[in-house]
Design brief:
Layout lengths: L2 H27 L6 H35 L1 H27 L8 H36 L2 H18 L2 H18 L1
The structure holds fe (ii) ion (FE2) (2 copies).
The site of one fe (ii) ion (FE2) has 6 residues, from helix 2, helix 3 and helix 4.
Length: 183
């Protein structure tokens, strides 16, 4: 497995989460209720899988490796991508605040979830598109097959250290369960 292939697979999983989040925002927007536990699960996925696992693989392993090979050429794009990770974190935190008292979500919390949920979707959809079609394509040209495979091995170590195999699988089960309910 190549490192960039692993990240593309993770983008598919994140895309599934964004579809679920979109449906949740629609339901909230028309005044329907959403199981508060589902909101908490989506937020956990954003914090643990998207930020702690996926963005860390990119920021700590892929980006530095690419910059060391490619120098200034990829530097500007990487700067933009890191800034977008930061913005995504801000939106996820805002959603986290809105659901902090998740057994009792009031109208204000509801509109905050809709607003930041939709901002998050918009940001991540174009971010993933940019990575898949520009950065990863560039990385696949610049890195040798061996370097890209090594990157995957480093990802595996990081994933185990950051979240552990058990939690990783649990997050994916949770996501697919939500997809069965909402999609
Ligand atoms: Fe990214
Ligand atoms: Fe990514």
């Amino acid at each position: 497995m190549m490192g960039t292939e692993d990240l593309r697979h993770e983008h598919n999983e994140i895309g599934l989460m964004l579809d679920v989040l979109g449906r949740i925002c629609e339901r909230l927007d028309v005044g329907e209720n959403v199981d508060p536990e589902h909101l908490k699960q989506i937020h956990d996925f954003m914090v643990v899988f998207v930020d702690k696992c996926h963005h860390t693989k990119e920021e700590e392993l892929l980006f530095p490796k690419l910059e060391s090979i490619d120098g200034a050429e990829s530097e500007k794009l990487i700067g933009v991508l890191i800034a977008e990770h930061r913005t995504g974190r801000k939106y996820a935190n805002a959603i986290g605040e809105a659901i902090s008292n998740h057994e009792n979500i009031d109208l204000q919390d509801r509109s905050k979830i809709i607003k930041y949920g939709r901002n998050y979707i918009k940001l991540l959809v174009q971010h993933i598109d940019k990575e898949n079609n520009v950065l990863f394509t560039m990385a696949e040209k610049k890195l040798s097959g061996k370097q890209n495979q090594e990157l995957f091995e480093e990802f595996e170590v990081m994933e185990k250290e950051k979240i552990g195999i058990g939690e990783h699988e649990q997050l994916h089960r949770m996501l697919h369960n939500l997809a069965d309910i909402y999609l």
